[in-house]
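Re: beginner question about structure tokens

> Can someone show what the tokenized structure looks like for a real chain? I only ever see the sequence side.

Sure, here's an example I had lying around. Input first:
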Amino acid sequence: MNHAASTSSKPTTQVALRNRLMRSSGSTGKTMLSYLVTLIVLLPFLWMILLSFKSNSDILNNPFSLPETISFDNYSRALQTLNLGLLYKNTFIIAIVTIVIEILITFMSSYALSRMIFRSERLRRSIAALLLMGLAIPAFILLFPVYRLTISFGLLDTYASLIIPYIATSISFNTLLFTGFLRGFPKEVEEAAVIDGCGLLTLGRSVVFPIIMPVVATVFIFNALYIWNEFPFAVTLISDEAMTTISLGISQFKGRFNIDYGGIIAASILLIIPQLIFFAFFQRFIIEGMTAGAVKG
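And the corresponding structure tokens:
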């Protein structure tokens, strides 16, 4: 009987060992795939760093070779050409004003969509569909009408010429992100606050807004990075050098008959590094905000 029991335990042990090996190989495969994806993502940035130490002729003739000597001429030229203080000042002013206004607008619109009682549910769905359609409109389609409107209102070469389009183009994304979180937000918290005497303004400012801070941080980060890198509106609506933004400043290395490739690459790296630091510092808030919106929506 003991012999039969030991015989029957062998297949069980073999199955457990086989399952363990399969899990181990699967985990190893996922790890290797993660490393491969990371390498593919990092390759363009590493290549940019490599090219930034080359001369323009070497960039054009031997773009994939290692630089023969490490030269910082491109970085020196980039720092001499770019007025970084002015670029940062203009970009920060535009970003701060834009983000504050659009968060206020989209928080109120998303709260209305997720909490207000509509006479027709079809109207609510139509507004949500309209916002969703707004995500599918490329910025390039809006350039000409926005340019004509900017000239009509006399806003060309002003902060408002960029702030207003940035706010308008962010409404769809921000509202849908806020709405996804608020729909899963427990109404009992708001009902208790109303019973305690909170009005609508106090309810939104003191109760709801502090709780949704992870999503607010996500919206802030995404919009800050968008404004930092945005080029089509900036190059169309800004021609005054005193109003130049960071993304627009890189175009100063492109002349009418020649292009300073080394200067462009070096300047791009100088402007990418702050973004990487910013993203690394706030990535936890991005993950929390996106996860909260996805799960609770």
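Each token stands for a local structural state, so reading them left to right follows the chain. Residues 2-51 form the longest helix (50 residues).
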